[in-house]
Amino acid sequence: MSTPVANPSNALRAPRPTLRQRWEAGNERPVWMEKPKPAMQLGKAILIVAICFMALYPLFAVLATSLSSQTEIANNNGLVLFPKEPTLAAYQTIFAGGVVTNALVRSLLITLIGTALSLVVTVAMAYGLSRRNLVGGRFFLMTALFTMLFSPGIIPSFLMVKELGLLNSYAALVLPTLMSAFNLVVVRSFFMNLPQELFEAAKIDGAGDFRILVQMVLPLSKGVLAVVGLFYAVSYWNAFFNAMLYLNDDKWPLSMILRQYVLLGQPMGDAGAVAEIAVPSQAIQMAVVVVSLLPIVIVFPFLQRYFTKGVLTGAIKG
Amino acid sequence: MNAATRPAGPSRRNFLSVAGVGALALFGAGSLAACGQRTVAGVSNASDALLPTTIPLKAQAADIAGTADGVPSAFFKYPKAFRSVEKAPLNGTKITAITNLFGTAPNGRGSNPAWQAIEERLGGTVEITSVSSDDYDTKFNTVVAGGDLPDLMLNNGSAVKDTIEFLQAKCADLTPYLGGDKIAAYPNLAAIPEIFWKNTVQAGKIYSLPIPRNLTGGSGFVNQTMLEKVGVSSTADIKDKDDFYRVATALTDPANNQWALGSTKFGLTMLHHIFRTPNVWRNDGGKLTRAFETEEYLAAIEFAAKLYKDGLYVPGSEGWTKSQMVNAFIAGKVAMIYDGLPAYTGPTGYGRSLPAANPANKAVPFIPFGHDGGKAQTWLDNVTFGTVMLKQNDEAKLKEVLGVANFLAAPFGSEEYLLLNYGVEGTDYTLDGNGNPIATERGLLDTAVPWKYLAAPQQVVFDPSNKEIATTLHSAYSKLIPLGVANPCETLFSPTDSSQGSKLGQPVSDAATAFIAGRGDMAGLKAAIAAWKTSGGDTIRGEYEQALAS
Amino acid sequence: MSSSSKTLDPAGSAGPASVLPGSAQAPGAPEKSGKAGNPGEHSKHGKPSKTGKRSGGARNARTAAQRRGSLWSRIRRDKVMLALILPGFAYFVVFHYVPLAGNIIAFLDYKPYLGFVDSVWVGLDNFSAMFKDAAFWVALRNTLVITGLQLVLFFPVPIMLALLLNSIMSKRIRKFVQSVVYLPHFIGWVIIVAVFSEILGATGVVPHVLQSLGLPRFDAMTTPEFFPFLVTIQSVWKDAGWGTIIFLAALMNVDQELYEAAAVDGAGPWHRMWNITMPGIMPVVILLLILNLGSILSVGFEQIVLQRDNVGPGAGEVLDTYVYFHGIQDGQWGPAAAVGLVKGIVGLFLVLGANKLAHFFGQEGVYSSGKSK
Fold this sequence. Notes:
The complex is a heterotrimer of chains A (318), B (550) and C (373).
Chain A: H1 3-13, H2 17-24, H3 38-66, H4 70-75, H5 89-95, H6 99-130, H7 137-149, H8 154-163, H9 171-174, H10 181-193, H11 196-204, H12 209-220, H13 222-238, H14 241-246, H15 254-263, H16 282-304, H17 311-317
Chain B: H1 9-17, H2 19-33, E1 74-75, E2 94-101, H3 113-122, E3 125-132, H4 136-146, E4 152-155, H5 163-170, H6 175-178, H7 187-190, H8 194-197, E5 201-202, E6 205-206, E7 208-215, E8 221-223, H9 224-229, H10 241-251, E9 259-261, H11 268-275, E10 281-284, E11 287-290, H12 295-309, H13 322-330, E12 334-337, H14 350-357, E13 363-365, E14 378-379, E15 382-390, H15 395-408, H16 415-422, E16 429-431, E17 437-439, H17 441-446, E18 461-462, H18 467-480, E19 484-485, H19 495-516, H20 522-549
Parallel strand pairs in B: 1-18, 2-3, 2-4, 9-12, 14-19
Antiparallel strand pairs in B: 4-15, 5-6, 7-15, 8-12, 8-13, 10-11, 16-17
Chain C: H1 2-8, H2 29-36, H3 48-67, H4 71-77, H5 79-100, E1 108-109, H6 115-118, E2 120-121, H7 125-132, H8 134-154, H9 156-167, H10 171-182, H11 189-199, H12 205-212, H13 227-251, H14 256-264, H15 269-293, H16 301-311, H17 313-316, H18 319-326, H19 333-360
Antiparallel strand pairs in C: 1-2
Helix pairs in contact in C: 7-19, 8-13, 8-18, 9-13, 10-13, 13-15, 15-19
């Protein structure tokens, strides 16, 4: 699994013409930047390979284990690296009957809609708060920050959701966690970082605050929107607690269904700890991990194109 | 507190806001299981006159009959089904329920023929709030705080803390409907033996319905093949603790990745049974002694520490998850573990999973021996799974709800049991040549609706796959139950224990763990026990003794 | 190019980072020019006039007088901004502040079926019981040790990793490595702990290697003294990659022109990193550091509770597990809320203090301190 990394780093270090052609498209070295020393490059390549190995080894083990039989897992003390007879049995178990498939669709919709709503509300408030001498700006900011430090507790939150008539509705998965003060502060800080002189100029040209937001600020903020959008999406995707609290099992998102599988392999007490149901095989637990990772692996490359250097600079220049 | 988890703002904040409560998430099962510190709801003077009369249903032809002291009957194949409920208990009405759910979420009502068939037989609908077993305490208390109580509510033993107050304030007194011969109106409930009803009586009234289990969780399991290799045919033949030490040493071979012992939390139950530690409390004529105050307890812990020190436990096994323990046992890495007896049967039970991994291996229940050559003493620590409370309602509604419970408590061998546990024939199961129901793929999801945690009959031993498994398990129950002692406070109530029991008991169990793992010593354990007494243990004892006397 | 040459001055690196247009709190052009004309100012820390200037800048000093009309006129001026804030503000009020009142249960012997009104008022009993409990102080100490260690050992890792990722020139490799290091974030603690015990545990790979090398066996999973390090290592593995996201976003906003200019001036790669990159992302670093301080009394509950028994409560009990074992398990809603409140108050003071400190060192922090009046 280290080959895809090793090759490119070799290419970087001593790019032969053919390889150079191959990699040139992706090489971003600016003209002013000097070629690093070979020793330095080698050290970096080794470091990167080592980091990738450390991150991938357990993941690889998780994937391999999900494809193994219980017998093989037991004989390997829990983690299999190379299953002798790979089997999709664990995946078949999870996906049998459509419960997981339905939950998958539900989770995708909740994540999409939730992330969109969260981004809108967060961007709006962050933009408002990025105005330096806004009336009550400090008050509004502190109001948001304070929520990072004190949590309301479960029962009062439940009562609120109940009073709003949101029990057993998908809105209960979105509205109570619509915004995170952390993300708000991050977006605000990025907005404040934008070159204000551009907006001042636009203002003189008669553009309103809202128009500046939509036409100037947002196009300059793709990177931070991608970051915060990812944060929101991941938290909606993984959230289970509100689903547990507010929804019945026929509306459970994927996180809750998958959790059911994993929980049963958890530690247990001693006396009288009588299993009501057998522990699902480790293969199933690992398959669950793989399933929950898939959307990230699929979606991430699309987000990544916004994670590129120089978005801002280019815009200022242009 | 790291930068990286921070970005996931909402979910993290959520987690914090539930801090420990989300924690229940993790350890709900643990708290359920933390029998040592838990007080099962109950009260003093459950006058026998008030307990429901046991009226057995027409005898079913069990392959191995049960006994009066609670050994379950065993079946090698599913008997010819009989109808136990004639009249639909509901009349187009709807009842609500909250209970816990293990394993997969079931198919929803709309796409679940078994659910539809059950409601057709019930004559109405049942709205079930199914809660992951690990989240049950949190969700139950939240729902209670929300004010709208369901008609049927599982009390899993840990969700309701101040039991009596809650029962009196919010739950229906069932004595007028179930006390004495009144229960005859609900024949399936009446068939549940008296021992299981003792847990349902609080403050002199019947407040709930039992969900019976097979009395004892057992003493653990042993890999029979490994045991025979060291010349022992049954753990019951081990003479005393020195002999056990010798056997354990013979079973341990680190070079071959093999150890005698290794379980989550050291699997101490097994040793406590060998040393005859009391089941939570010992009652000497009205004077109570907590299990960990006894010589037997200390001796068992000391022995465990010796076994640990001498390397007879799998290193690091005290931190295992349950999966790790199961894997180690199946793989033959550890010869003896502690897990509850119900983990023996079924497709993934030890009875089948050990031979599946290695045909030479075989698991059997651990039958304890006395540490001094005398008898062992087991615990009746699995009398009920929990109890089910009924919301206060008018008489007509309560009778309807009890009718539903009666339907759900249909015994093994009945049509209703088949429907509740296996679903609709043809869709959810097919009958094999011997008349045993074999679940189809969708059957598992259709029957995952947690009906059996709303009301249930007495359990039986049944594993159609292999006669030997049923026989072995039944034989284990026959040996273990007669050795069993009840927790004398099981049906008593102590406010202090209820509100602070686990907090007070935690340092003792921590000290015991430290002692065994070599981080602490006997003096530390004794100090923790002494601290328990002064910090509230004696208060708990006093409250129980008072309840015992009244 | 005055700003870039100033940044190359090593002494300047400790000073105001905001001279860079690319820095997160870039105060805008007018201020920048004002600063550049006053290069000595960065050494005079903590003057109230300075903080006022920092946040508002020269522009504000000038315009504030013009704009300081009646409150009403200011509201009218900001009406669009205020309207944009409104939905978010309403969210915080409805889903945070109203339910926050529920923390009153910290002063109650709360019973869910009795509700807030009928539960018994116990005043500060829940707090005094907590402070009197020796186990609480042990848990507090362990929490601080672990969070302190994470602050020192964990916090810099995502920054370094982000710098490393950022220095990869090939887009494809960078994307690949980026994707790879994010993945562990999505693996649950149960599995991570199991994987670690396969590797570091007593029967795992590392002790075996140690033994075969003739070294003493070291069981990293069950050694109490090592526990804070173990927890930190696990956190690094799981979340360091994920933590790079924000720093990478900050890095890509650092003005490329500055690098170019510095390179032209003959500054080497290390020099550029210390004098352009680091000051450029410093505001984000400070921001995250401050926000992290707010949760200094919280350590990953799930991670710790899974391993607490391996080392015993003496080393493995943290505040969150303390609340769980001493509060929640017994249904003690009141005491649990009390601990939550104490944690929040401590976090509040730390955040306020750290923010002040950040201003003192010329950083903006999370919010500006001096109002531009």
